[in-house]
C-alpha cells in the first residue's frame, strides 16, 4: 500500500513495467464508482468531484490513463451505463459541490447540498444510490438553473450561449425529447400516446413536415424553460469535464472513453429515419444463452451509412461526428464495446427471438437470407454450408475487397475520426472478447487494431487458447477481468480444490515456472492456496507479452464484490463504488507481482534485471 504514496516507489514500478515491455498501464473505473471527499457523498460518484481529483492525484505517476465507463445520459429506470445516449452526457456526473462555490456564483445552496448528502441512504456504504440521486440531482440542478438565471452573470451567459450554438446539431434534439418526456410523463418514447410526437423528427411527407414543425414550435414554446434548463445542465457538465481533463493532464493522466455500439431510446427517436425498420441488435444463441440475447437496440441502416460514390451518408456523418467528439474529449482514446457490433452485427426481427429459425442473422454475412441478402458482402459460395447460420466461422472465403467492405465503417468513420482529432488508430481499444466471426478477425488483422486478451477467460484444456499467457501477443490490451467479471479474489477462491482450478494451475506453472525443478510441489501448493493462485494469476498478466495492460478497480484494490453480473438486474448491478477511505485500503502487492513477472521470464532475463528486482524488493 505504501508504494501508492511514494513517488520514488512509483518510479521503480514504472521502470519494472518498462522492462516487461509495457507501454501503457491503465486503471479502469466507471464514473459512478469514484469515491467522494469527506462530507460530499451525494450517492453517486464522479471524476469531476473533489473525490475524483483526490483519486487522480493518488493514481498519478503509476497509471498512464483512467478508462471510464460510457458517459451518456441513462434511463431513469436503468442504471446501466450501456443504455446511455450518444451525445448528451449523464447529469449525475455533475459535481454539485462546485455549484455551491463562488466560481459558479453560489447557484446551489449549501443547505440543499447538505440535505442531499445527509439523506443519502448509502452514505456509509461503497454503493451508489441510483434511484435516490437521480431525483435529488434533478431537483438540485433545477435550483441551480433558476438561480443561474437570476444571477445573470455576463461571462457565464456568454459561455452558455456559445455552447448552445456549437452543439446545436444534437442539443436541440435531446432537449426537445426532454420536453416531450415531461409532456407524456415518461422518458421512454414508445409509451407516448401521440403518434405525431413519436415521429416528430421523422416526417414522411411535406404535409407532415408542416404539421410536425408547428408541433415542435408549440412544444418549444410550452417548455422553453425546461428545454433551456436541459441545455444548461449539459453546459455545466461539459465545462466541468473540460476542467477535469486539464487537471488530469497536469498530473500526467489521460482519459479513455467507453463507447457502446448500441443507441439509446432518445437517440432512436431523434434519428429513427437512419435505422433499419423492424430490426434490432443482439447476440446469437451460444453456450450461455440458447435463445440468444435480445438487446432491443436499433440497427443502423447500411444504406444510410454511405452514398453511392462511397462518401459518408447521413448515418455515416452522424457516427463520425460522435467519434470525433469522443476522441476530441478523450485524448487517451476510446474503447469500443463491442467491435463485432460495428463490423459484423447480429440482428433479429423486432418481436422475435434472436434465433436463425426466427429470421435472425449477421447483417453483412447472410447472402442466403430473404431480406438481409441485400446487405451481404460474401456470396453463398463463400460460405461453408456445413455450419449453421449462427456459427461464427460460416464465412469461409473472403477476398481483400470483401474485407475492405467489412472494414469500411472502421476505416472511414472510427480511424478517420481519430486521425482528424490528432490521434492514431492505436487510440482505439477494441473489445473483441469471445469468439469472433471470420470477417471481424480479418478486419482486425488488416487494420492492425488493438484487441483484448482476458486472462480469466482462458480455456485451460486448449493449449493454443489466445487468452493464455504464452499465447498473448504484444500488440493488444491484456487484463484479468472487465466490469462483467468476478474480481480475481473471487475467481481464485472458486478455483481452489477443483478440477478446473487444477487445469488452470497446471498451465500457469508451465508458463511461469518453466525452469523450476519442483513443478509438482508448486502445483500442489497453488491448487490449495487461494492467495498463491490469485497472486500468480496477476503475475501472469504482467508476464505476458502484451504491451498494454488494463486493471479493473476491484482487482487492483483486492475487493470481494462484483460490479456487474450479466443477466441480472436491480441494485446489485452497476452500484459498486470505491470506498471514500480508499487511500487506507489494501491493494495488490504490485512490486512483488512485477518482481515475480520478471523472474518468470527466465534466469537470464532475471539476471539482466537484477537491479530492478532488488529495487522492487525494497518497496514496502
Q: How many DSSP H or I helices?
A: 23
pLDDT averaged over residues: 95
Number of strand segments: 12
Cα end-to-end separation: 8 Å
- The radius of gyration over CA amounts to 25 Å
Biggest sheet details: 8 strands, parallel
Low-confidence stretches: none
Strand content: 5-15%
**Helix content range:** 40-55%
Structural class: alpha/beta
The strand order across the widest sheet is 9-6-3-2-1-12-11-10
Bulk shape: globular
Any overview of this molecule?
It contains 23 helices and 12 strands. With 620 residues, the protein is α/β, with parallel strands linked by helices. Among the domains are: 1-20 and 454-620, no CATH class; 271-449, no CATH class. Helix 2 (50-59) links the parallel strand 1 and strand 2. Helix 16 packs across helix 19 (530-543), helix 17 crosses helix 19 and helix 18 crosses helix 19. 47% of the residues are buried. The mean pLDDT is 95.
Précis, in short:
With 620 residues, the protein is an alpha/beta fold. The protein is 42% helix and 10% strand.
Task: Spell out the blueprint of helices and strands.
Elements: H1 7-19, E1 24-28, H2 50-59, E2 65-67, H3 110-118, H4 130-151, H5 154-166, H6 168-184, H7 195-198, H8 206-222, H9 224-250, E3 254-260, H10 265-270, E4 275-283, E5 293-300, H11 314-329, E6 333-337, H12 340-343, E7 346-349, E8 361-362, H13 400-406, H14 408-420, E9 428-431, H15 438-446, E10 451-454, E11 476-479, H16 488-495, H17 499-512, H18 519-528, H19 530-543, E12 548-552, H20 553-556, H21 590-600, H22 603-608, H23 610-618
Parallel strand pairs: 1-2, 1-12, 2-3, 3-6, 6-9, 10-11, 11-12
Antiparallel strand pairs: 4-5, 4-7, 7-8
Helix pairs in contact: 1-21, 1-23, 6-9, 11-14, 16-19, 17-18, 17-19, 18-19, 19-21, 21-23
Amino acid at each position: 500500500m505504501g508504494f501508492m504514496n511514494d513517488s520514488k516507489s512509483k518510479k521503480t514500478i514504472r521502470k519494472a513495467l518498462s522492462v516487461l515491455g509495457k507501454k501503457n498501464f491503465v486503471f479502469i473505473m466507471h464514473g459512478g464508482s469514484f469515491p467522494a471527499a469527506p462530507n460530499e457523498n451525494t450517492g453517486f460518484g464522479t471524476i469531476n468531484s473533489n473525490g475524483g481529483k483526490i483519486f487522480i492525484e493518488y493514481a498519478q505517476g503509476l497509471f498512464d490513463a483512467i478508462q471510464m465507463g460510457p458517459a451518456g445520459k441513462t434511463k431513469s429506470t436503468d442504471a446501466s451505463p450501456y443504455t446511455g445516449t450518444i451525445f448528451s452526457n449523464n447529469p449525475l456526473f455533475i459535481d454539485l459541490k462546485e455549484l455551491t462555490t463562488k466560481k459558479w456564483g453560489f447557484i446551489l445552496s449549501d443547505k440543499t447540498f447538505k440535505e442531499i448528502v445527509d439523506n443519502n441512504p448509502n452514505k456509509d456504504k461503497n454503493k451508489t444510490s441510483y434511484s435516490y440521486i437521480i431525483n435529488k440531482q434533478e431537483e438540485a440542478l433545477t435550483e441551480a438553473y433558476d438561480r443561474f438565471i437570476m444571477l445573470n452573470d455576463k461571462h457565464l451567459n456568454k459561455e452558455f450561449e456559445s455552447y448552445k450554438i456549437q452543439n446545436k446539431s444534437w442539443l436541440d434534439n435531446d432537449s426537445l425529447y426532454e420536453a416531450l418526456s415531461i409532456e407524456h410523463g415518461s422518458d421512454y418514447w414508445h409509451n407516448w400516446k401521440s403518434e405525431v410526437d413519436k415521429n416528430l423528427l421523422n416526417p414522411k411527407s411535406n404535409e407532415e413536415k408542416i404539421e410536425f414543425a408547428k408541433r415542435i414550435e408549440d412544444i418549444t414554446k410550452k417548455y422553453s424553460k425546461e428545454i433551456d434548463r436541459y441545455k444548461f445542465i449539459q453546459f455545466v457538465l461539459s465545462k466541468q469535464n473540460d476542467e477535469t481533463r486539464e487537471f488530469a493532464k497536469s498530473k500526467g493522466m489521460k482519459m479513455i472513453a467507453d463507447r457502446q455500439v448500441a443507441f439509446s431510446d432518445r437517440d432512436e427517436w431523434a434519428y429513427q429515419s437512419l435505422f433499419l425498420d423492424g430490426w434490432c441488435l443482439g447476440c446469437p444463441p451460444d453456450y450461455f444463452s440458447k435463445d440468444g440475447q435480445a438487446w432491443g437496440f436499433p440497427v443502423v441502416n447500411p444504406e444510410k451509412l454511405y452514398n453511392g460514390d462511397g462518401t459518408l451518408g447521413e448515418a455515416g456523418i452522424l457516427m463520425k461526428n460522435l467519434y470525433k467528439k469522443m476522441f476530441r474529449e478523450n485524448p487517451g482514446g476510446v474503447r469500443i464495446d463491442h467491435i463485432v457490433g460495428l463490423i459484423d452485427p447480429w440482428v433479429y426481427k423486432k418481436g422475435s427471438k434472436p434465433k436463425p429459425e426466427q429470421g435472425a442473422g449477421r447483417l453483412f454475412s447472410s447472402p442466403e437470407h430473404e431480406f438481409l441478402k441485400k446487405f451481404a458482402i460474401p456470396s453463398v459460395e463463400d460460405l461453408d454450408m456445413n455450419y449453421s447460420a449462427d456459427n461464427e466461422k460460416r464465412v469461409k472465403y473472403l477476398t481483400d475487397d470483401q474485407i475492405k467492405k467489412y472494414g469500411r465503417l472502421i476505416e472511414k468513420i472510427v480511424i478517420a475520426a481519430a486521425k482528424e482529432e490528432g490521434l492514431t488508430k492505436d487510440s482505439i481499444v477494441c473489445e473483441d472478447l469471445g469468439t469472433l466471426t471470420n470477417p471481424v478477425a480479418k478486419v482486425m488483422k488488416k487494420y492492425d487494431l488493438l484487441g483484448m486478451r482476458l486472462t480469466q477467460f482462458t480455456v485451460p484444456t486448449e493449449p493454443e487458447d489466445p487468452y493464455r499467457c504464452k499465447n498473448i501477443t504484444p500488440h493488444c490490451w491484456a487484463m484479468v477481468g472487465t466490469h462483467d467479471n468476478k474480481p480475481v479474489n473471487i475467481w481464485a477462491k472458486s478455483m481452489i480444490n477443483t478440477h478446473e482450478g487444477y487445469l488452470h494451475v497446471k498451465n500457469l506453472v508451465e508458463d511461469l515456472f518453466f525452469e523450476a525443478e519442483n513443478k509438482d510441489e508448486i502445483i500442489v501448493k497453488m491448487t490449495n492456496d487461494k492467495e498463491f493462485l490469485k497472486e500468480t494469476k496477476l503475475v501472469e498478466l504482467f508476464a505476458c507479452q502484451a504491451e498494454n495492460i488494463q486493471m479493473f478497480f476491484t482487482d487492483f484494490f483486492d475487493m470481494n464484490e462484483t460490479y456487474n453480473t450479466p443477466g441480472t438486474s436491480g441494485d446489485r448491478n452497476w452500484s459498486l463504488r470505491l470506498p471514500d477511505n480508499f487511500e487506507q485500503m489494501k491493494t495488490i502487492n504490485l512490486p512483488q507481482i512485477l518482481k515475480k513477472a520478471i523472474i518468470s521470464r527466465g534466469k537470464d532475463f532475471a539476471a539482466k534485471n537484477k537491479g530492478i528486482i532488488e529495487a522492487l524488493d525494497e518497496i514496502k
